[in-house]
């Protein structure tokens, strides 16, 4: 592999092979940021203990610093060093990790992370991803990695290496290409409270999945403060107006289709919601880059992962 071909600051897309993962681990130890695939979306990773490195994430994304980051860990024992797990948290972790689910838990008092990661909150968001590239990078580096989605703050999340390059290329020295993300929507964020659990952001793991494991319904969202950008009304937004539940588009609209409504990009011709979730952000990136003035989206059923798809679509309409 050619190290000489990259000057830090220029996006450098490399296939995520062993040599690239070794190089990425060295970048991370040097306090640099690296874009990497997960099963949900591409993440922008930095050593969670290094304040300068974490500051580079906020700077590259243009992310407000009151917005905390998810910390990725290599296994459950690494997670327990950062957060306090009660019985319910243990059961959820046991059922869904590694996988597309993030737990928000009380921060361990002596957790080895820099303060900016949690934006000063008494809680921490933790995830153990199933993606082989993320797992290999965690193992190779021996670090815990702060990693929000690798897109400019508020914009469309990246599900392919080329989305990262288009959005953040100039601000990220290295982008590991692991192909398209299988789930395609950000992780489900679950907060554990003293008296139960709450969904902060809907995602690939549904409330019904969690209910089956813990045996009780989610708490009614308290929603007093914004704890996650997933709760902000404008997020995941293209630069163009978006109109939802469209069966007959206007001539000037670029149509994201579903099932029998084909459009300019059909999320799933067979009407498969998991396939639609995997394709959603790629369709939005294409729609945004097209010559059309505005974007229309066919109706998506509000069931299973369709709930998370509609959540992202609703936020995409607010600019
Ligand atoms: P992103 O990966 O860009 O979607 O951002 C990470 C998500 O995790 C955001 O929605 C954060 O607000 C959320 N998050 C991180 N830490 C916490 C926390 N302590 N409490 C609630 N949400 C959190
Ligand atoms: Mg994000």
N-to-C SSE string, H for helix and E for strand = EHEEHEHHEEHEHEEEHEEEHEH
- Outline the biggest β-sheet: 10 strands, mixed
Write down the CATH topology of the largest domain: DHBP synthase
What coarse outline follows from CA principal-axis ratios? globular
Which architecture name of the largest domain does CATH use?
Answer: Alpha-Beta Complex
Structural class: alpha/beta
Percent of residues in helices: 25-40%
What this model shows, in words?
Strands 1-8-2-3-7-4-6-5-9-10 form a 10-stranded mixed sheet, sandwiched between helices. It has 319 residues and is α/β, with parallel strands linked by helices. 51% of the residues are buried. The protein has 2 domains: 4-214, DHBP synthase (Alpha-Beta Complex), CATH 3.90.870; 242-316, Rossmann fold, CATH 3.40.50. 29% of the residues lie in helices and 18% in strands. The chain binds adenosine monophosphate and magnesium ion. The site of adenosine monophosphate (AMP) has 20 residues, from strand 6 and strand 10.
